Amino acid sequence: MKKLSGWRKTALYLTILATILTTFLVTALIISLHVINGGGASIFGETAILSGSCDKVSRANLWIHLAINVIGTGVLGSSNFFMQVLVAPTRHDVDRAHASKRWVEIGVHSIHNFRFLSRRRIFLWALFSLTSIPLHLVFNGSVLESKATNGFVAIMVSETFLNDARFTLPSVTTSSNYTYALNSESTPNKTIRSIKSSINEESWERLEFQDCMRRYNDLEVLMLNHRHVVMVMSNQNNTPSSQWTRANVVKEDNGWDDQDAPNSLWFAGRYNRFKNSRGLITNSTNNNTVLGYYMQLDPDTGAIYMNETKYEPAFRTMKVDYCLSEIFHAPCRLSIVNPLLLIVCIMCISKCLLCSYTLKVRSWSTEEPLMTVGDAISSFIAKPDTCTKGICTLDAEDLHMKLDPERALGSSRPWKKKQVLAGNAVNPGIWILSYMLIGSLLVLGGLLLAPALQTQSLRESRFAHHQKNADVNDAGLKSASLLGLTMISNTPQLLLSLCYMTLNGLITRMLAELEWASYAISFKALRVTNPRGDQRSTYRLQLPYRWSIPLLAISSILHWVYSNCFYLSNYECKWFHAVPGNGNKRLDSSIDNSY
């Protein structure tokens, strides 16, 4: 186990951890495809793993996404460890840098070292980076919560409909010959009979007309907790509903067998509530056909104006008095998105292979990498560097990004004690880049928050994938694919990880400087990869666990919180004894398909 001492042992443990997490994900994909729901799911489709009340599904989704972000943090944390291992220079790399009057960084994850690394190590580092990007963009979308939106039937009836008055399909205002509607076992008949039989139950609530229109006439309001609506209407001329017969209402005789039979059903139509309402008629002043007849519903007053050429004078002006709305909570669903989970599995398998190969290459190489400050000190004590010989007072200010002792010092000089801050160990360019990355994340957060607050207040919003949260409505997103929407919603996750790596790098550089300075304050054994004598072994690279573990925990929590703030919502239209009809349209502009 000599070759697996120090950081190598940690690298082995992280490789095993990444392999275990990857095995779990691959097993989940196999179960999704071949076990759940009897198997047979498509690799390009979805597999439902939970269905029920939206609150129950939302809670499950909350904890599943926490697990996703913990797994992602474990895999990406292992990946970052090996990326730092790859950029750690050997003594040969340091000598090459010094010979060309350049410098390298030791104990930190620095791309500044690239110019002195082998092509193979740079290639492996790039593969680690590239396999991380899909994980950030699609991992949180591999489990998708689908919210249901109810399709509903809107019927206009007389008050007597609620008291067992006779009704038939087609409705009294319909002239076309709907043969399927005449069948008592047809879907339209079953639906309206179900409405009529349950109308006095607690599942129905009374609404004033304006409240009714706000609930049912807004294309952007999904029907999550309500379904059918009964609009109770009356004749402005006080004509009793017992006279609602085809012979009395419609001027033309279309040969119906029940021309003289009373019918308490004035109109019936079906409506959808999807998130795609472009190109629909929304002007309530337009005349809209009711299968050859004309009527207009005024969304402000509830008045219905019938076409004078088609309807008898006594029925040309009707009015909706109030509505009865059915309370119905549509079931939600939690699904595994198989193609996205497949992408995650491929990336994780790739990372496991890269971790194993990197461990082999760096552990069994002919030259030891300088992983820690102690490794560098030990190496330079054993073999002094000729390029920096005799300039013990050399510091970062003398380098000016290029090692030139003759120009910087020229001759020996006295040591001057001065008070410095740990932050001085960080190059100004890195500080600027760090501020830019973290600042851009804060700006992006503000840009997302500002329009969200205009749509919904903080008090009204809910944490997690709650159905009450407002949606982002943008015309450009309506035609995007599931993969495209997932990547768009998770793009800030990538920026969040870059900010974590930036903060990690800042703290690592400052702690490396403190460790370097600590050797000048008091006697202290070197922390090295392969200890000799009183030297200390190290299981970490540079960042102490008291720093690295909280940073990883904070990163995981931030990723989880973000995944519950800006996410992809999937809506499915649920039909229960539905009837063909009006699709995704407004009530006041789509009375164009009745029975």
TrEMBL record:
The chain crosses the membrane at residues 12-36, 62-82, 122-139, 430-453. The keyword Transmembrane applies. Coiled coil: none annotated. Residues 7-162 form the DUF6536 domain. It comes from the Eukaryota. This is DUF6536 domain-containing protein. It comes from Fusarium oxysporum NRRL 32931. The keyword Transmembrane applies.
